[in-house]
């Protein structure tokens, strides 16, 4: 599977969450043979946005974000570095044409966001942890203006939530579930839930759901889809809006079981009603963590 589905979701997500802090450009071409930049961010102020935790700390200065669905290899990391230096070169040439100078601090830095990162990769690029930065953030030597963020190593705290959303598997699913819960308390996060839900819906309709990468991403996005689906129904935006909430929950559980285990057979169909009695969070955890046999035993019908 290519990076494209994850790339597009990550771009839309980062654009939505960073736009209030400054100017966000996605899929920007650079004047060289390198590929486009995923996200280029320029802050409107130099103040840190504490609400976004670690992501807000990273976005204090002009920077590039390169999110990966699977851990990048050395060639891919060097490609990211080439993008960074191409952008820096463009900015320096523009400043020269305008007869002004640029300080080192004004040149953008690079954040490579990866679900995991091996010791071998970190050692080969000289990545080191820094004081006052969370575990999982590794800075290359100063002149490179680059850091690698291993999302699976980040502490499970509120400060890392907005980066864990771009992780993989259980880490991503739990983070998206947290965002869904936050949106119930504060509607400012509703747009993020809508983005996740729309991607879940599009993947189900337009992708190969038997592809393991697609299947995993569908599972991760499902908590947001379940919440948003009810709102779509209430607003008359989705066919079948006259179905009740329980019907929506049943369809979601059936869909998740089918995606997880390949099909929804008679044995799995029997446990759906009992699973509907659980909370969204508990239900999601069980679907992610329990095997087919464990689910059937957990919800065995007497």
Quick structural summary:
This protein is an alpha/beta fold and 302 residues long.
What would the keywords be for this entry?
single chain; 302 residues; alpha/beta; 2 domains
Explain this structure.
This protein has two domains: 4-164, no CATH class; 170-298, no CATH class. The chain has twelve helices and six strands. By secondary structure, the chain is an alpha/beta fold. It has a six-stranded mixed β-sheet with strand order 1-2-3-4-6-5, sandwiched between helices. The protein is elongated, with a radius of gyration of 21 Å. Helix 1 (4-18) packs antiparallel against helix 7 (190-206) and helix 6 (170-185) crosses helix 7 (190-206).
Q: Helix coverage percent of residues? A: 40-55%
Low-confidence stretches: 238-243
Put simply, the count of helices is 12
Structural class: alpha/beta
List the helices and strands and how they pair.
Elements: H1 4-18, E1 22-28, E2 37-43, H2 53-58, E3 63-67, H3 74-97, E4 109-114, H4 119-125, E5 137-139, E6 146-150, H5 161-164, H6 170-185, H7 190-206, H8 212-234, H9 245-261, H10 266-275, H11 280-289, H12 292-298
Parallel strand pairs: 3-4, 4-6
Antiparallel strand pairs: 1-2, 2-3, 5-6
């Amino acid at each position: 599977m290519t990076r494209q589905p994850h790339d597009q979701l990550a771009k839309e997500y980062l654009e939505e969450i960073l736009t209030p802090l400054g100017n966000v450009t996605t899929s920007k071409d650079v004047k060289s043979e390198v590929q486009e930049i995923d996200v280029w961010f320029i802050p409107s102020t130099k103040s840190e946005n504490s609400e976004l935790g670690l992501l807000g700390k990273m976005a204090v200065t002009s920077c590039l974000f390169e999110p990966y669905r699977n851990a990048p290899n050395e060639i891919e990391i060097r490609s990211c570095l080439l993008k960074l230096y191409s952008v820096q070169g463009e900015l320096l040439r523009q400043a020269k044409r305008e007869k002004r100078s640029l300080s080192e601090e004004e040149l953008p830095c690079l954040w490579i966001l990866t679900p995991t990162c091996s010791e071998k990769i970190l050692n080969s690029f000289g990545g080191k942890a820094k004081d006052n930065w969370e575990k999982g953030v590794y800075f290359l030597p100063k002149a490179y203006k680059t850091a690698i963020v291993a999302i699976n190593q980040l502490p499970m705290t509120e400060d890392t939530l907005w980066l864990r959303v771009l992780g993989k598997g259980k880490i991503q699913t739990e983070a998206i579930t947290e965002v869904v819960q936050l949106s119930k308390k504060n509607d400012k996060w509703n747009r993020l839930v809508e983005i996740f839900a729309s991607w879940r819906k599009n993947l189900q309709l337009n992708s190969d759901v038997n592809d393991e990468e697609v299947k995993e991403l569908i599972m991760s996005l499902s908590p947001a889809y379940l919440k948003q689906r009810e709102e779509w129904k209430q607003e008359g935006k989705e066919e079948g809006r006259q179905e009740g909430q329980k019907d929506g929950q049943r369809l979601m559980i059936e869909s998740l079981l089918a995606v997880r285990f390949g099909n929804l057979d008679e044995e799995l169909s029997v446990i759906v009603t009992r699973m509907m009695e659980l909370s969204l969070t508990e239900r999601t955890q069980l679907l992610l963590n329990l095997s087919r046999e464990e689910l059937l035993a957990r919800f065995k019908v007497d």
